[in-house]
Design goal:
The chain is of the alpha/beta class. Strand 12 and strand 13 form a beta hairpin.
Length: about 300
């Protein structure tokens, strides 16, 4: 795989797949998607706010459908984790994977996403995206009238609990797993909103059936019944190291800045889409950015060929 593609997408999640589908439909470019097989969408057991999926769809299923769709338009896929990116003398890009393989392309898309920070509690991953969530914009609706717990740390967890209180859960607990300080103003607001608060490590997320939370058991042995959970620890990891290697402009939190219209970075020929960029970390927006970037990649590639 040492020949030069027209475009490489690093990341086969929601944004990367949508970009591959759109660019593939032009039937004018050689496309390679390099995917490590993990990521936020691979963990999510249910997206509930996407047009066309009223009963929800898992990230794994959406990725499976998306890959098959992209392959129908000629996109190639390889499983690898890219660890290095650099410009070539010809003005293109070369990326190297953990496998030792180097892949070359004229344009490059980074759809490398973010990783949410949370402990590996027994039972939690089984319900992630089904009855446990990270995004109040996506899934705040799911806690209406439900016993809900926020599993978090310090001020980020307190802020999440206060935000969710507006969604009218039947009860709401904030469990400060790491015991990090919560500011006095936030503590007063928790009390004012009737949000129960405890500083104690979580030992286990108990399930009543597959993917359905029954309770949260604390390290001291107490047990809090719950139907829904949110996690809020702060410090999520933004996977923008490759963008930094190429000189892309980033915010202090690591998210990559892109042109509002094209999604290209300040580095010519380099695009960043999805959660690694600066947006509200929504699957639907990631899809839109994938389409948007692909349209402009096509314009650039055709301009290089035909002097447009």
């Amino acid at each position: 795989m040492n020949d030069t593609r027209d475009c490489i997408m690093v990341g086969g999640g929601i944004a990367g797949l949508q970009a591959a589908i759109q660019l593939g439909r032009y039937q004018a470019h050689r496309i390679l998607v390099i995917d490590s097989g993990d990521g936020r969408s691979a963990l999510c057991r249910g997206y509930h706010n996407l047009l066309g999926w009223p009963d929800g769809i898992s990230g794994a299923e959406l990725r499976r459908i998306g890959r098959r769709q992209a392959e129908q338009y000629g996109a190639e896929f390889v499983e690898d984790r890219v660890i290095r990116a650099e410009r070539t003398q010809s003005g293109g890009f070369a990326v190297t994977g953990q496998s030792g393989e180097t892949y070359r392309s004229r344009t490059l898309v980074l759809a490398t996403g973010v990783t949410d920070r949370f402990p590996e509690w027994p039972g939690f991953r089984e319900c992630f995206g089904k009855t446990a969530y990270v995004c109040p914009d996506c899934d705040g609706f799911e806690i209406i009238g439900r016993r809900t717990v926020v599993l978090g740390s310090g001020n980020p967890g307190a802020s999440m609990a206060l935000l969710l209180a507006k969604r009218r859960p039947s009860s709401l607990h904030y469990l400060n797993h790491e015991g990090k300080p919560v500011s006095d103003p936030l503590k007063r607001r928790l009390t004012d909103q009737g949000i129960a608060y405890a500083e104690e490590p979580v030992a286990e997320v108990e399930l009543r059936q597959e993917g359905a939370i029954a309770a949260v058991r604390l390290a001291g042995g107490s047990r809090i019944e719950a139907e829904r959970a949110f996690v809020a620890f702060g410090g999520n990891e933004v996977h923008s190291e490759l963008a930094a290697q190429l000189g892309a402009e980033r915010l202090e939190n690591g998210h990559v800045l892109t042109h509002a219209r094209s999604k290209m970075t300040n580095v010519p020929g380099l695009w960043c889409i999805g959660d690694v960029g600066v947006h509200s970390e929504q699957a639907a927006i990631a899809m839109g950015e994938g389409v948007q970037a692909a349209i402009w990649i096509h314009k650039v590639l055709m301009g290089e060929e035909y002097g447009m």
